[in-house]
Amino acid sequence: xxxxxxxxxxALPVAGTLLAAAITLGAxxxxxxxxxxxxxxxxxxxxxxxxxxxxxxxxxxxxxxxxVTLQKRLALGGSRxxxxxxxxxVTKSGTTFxxxxxPVTTCQLT
Length: 110
Prior knowledge:
By secondary structure, this protein is α+β, with helices and mostly antiparallel strands. It has helices at residues 11-24, 29-32; strands at 36-42, 47-53, 56-63, 66-73, 79-83, 86-91, 94-99, 105-109.
């Protein structure tokens, strides 16, 4: 029976993983306040959510029903994160996303 709730496949494991990481790394109340969640929609129809934590330089992403942790990489301008076949670039001029062999796509905050 449907209770009227919509669930995201894999959301509970991601939430559990992020909570475990916060506990393991000893996140304080102050660092919890510096957590940023951003939702994106891309030109190719891809949608994803990415979390940035004040105590962690990595980006934690949920895309295509899977959790991916992206390491911060050297970038000439803006920020670049990559890992697990995914690349996320955030600059003043915009955000681009690439997953697997798909072409790079431009994304907008939703």
